[in-house]
C-alpha cells in the first residue's frame, strides 16, 4: 500500500505515471494498471506467465553518473544471465518530469517475490511486477 511506504508520495505518484518502455520487436510500453497485449504475446512466445520490469540505476532515487549507472546495469544483466532468465532491454521514463530515463530490463518468467528480492538487492524503491493477466503493478520495496 502506498501510504505504508517511506517513499515520498510525489515519487510514488511519478512511478505510477511512468511509461515502462520495452525495446522488443515491436517495441511497446507498459503502464501501471493497464493490460498489455504485447506483454501477453511475449508470455505466449516464451511460455511464461509473469514478468518484472526493473533497473539497477539510481539506487533509492539518488542520481548517479552515467558510468555508475552503466556499471550497475551491467551487474544486473550478469545476474539475470547467471539465473538463465530471458530479458529485454527497456527504459523507464516519466512523460513530463525532468528525471532522466532509467535503462531497465523486462525480465520474463521472474516471479513477484524473486523480483522484489532482486530489486531490494539493487537498492530500488520500487519495481513493476506483471502477473498472468498482463497488468503491470507497482511494487514498492521500502
Question: What do these coordinates show?
Answer:
With 142 residues, the protein is of the alpha+beta class. The protein has helices at 9-17, 37-46, 66-82, 112-121; strands at 19-22, 28-30, 51-54, 86-93, 102-108, 126-130, 136-140. A seven-stranded antiparallel sheet has the order 2-1-4-5-3-6-7, with helices on both faces. The protein is globular, with a radius of gyration of 14 Å. The mean pLDDT is 95. It holds the Pfam family DUF3293.
Task: Write the topology of this structure.
Blueprint: H1 9-17, E1 19-22, E2 28-30, H2 37-46, E3 51-54, H3 66-82, E4 86-93, E5 102-108, H4 112-121, E6 126-130, E7 136-140
Antiparallel strand pairs: 1-2, 1-4, 3-5, 3-6, 4-5, 6-7
Looking at this protein, list some descriptive labels.
alpha+beta, 142 residues, single chain, 25% strand, 32% helix, globular
Amino acid at each position: 500500500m502506498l501510504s505504508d511506504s517511506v517513499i515520498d508520495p510525489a515519487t510514488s505518484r511519478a512511478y505510477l505515471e511512468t511509461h515502462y518502455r520495452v525495446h522488443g520487436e515491436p517495441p511497446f510500453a507498459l503502464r501501471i494498471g493497464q493490460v498489455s497485449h504485447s506483454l501477453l504475446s511475449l508470455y505466449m512466445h516464451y511460455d511464461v506467465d509473469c514478468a518484472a520490469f526493473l533497473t539497477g540505476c539510481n539506487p533509492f532515487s539518488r542520481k548517479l553518473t552515467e558510468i555508475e549507472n552503466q556499471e550497475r546495469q551491467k551487474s544486473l544483466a550478469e545476474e539475470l544471465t547467471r539465473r538463465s532468465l530471458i530479458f529485454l532491454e527497456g527504459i523507464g521514463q516519466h512523460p513530463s518530469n525532468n528525471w532522466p530515463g532509467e535503462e531497465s530490463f523486462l525480465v520474463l518468467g521472474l516471479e513477484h517475490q524473486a523480483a522484489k528480492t532482486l530489486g531490494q538487492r539493487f537498492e530500488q524503491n520500487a519495481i513493476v511486477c506483471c502477473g498472468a493477466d498482463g497488468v503491470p503493478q507497482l511494487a514498492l520495496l521500502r
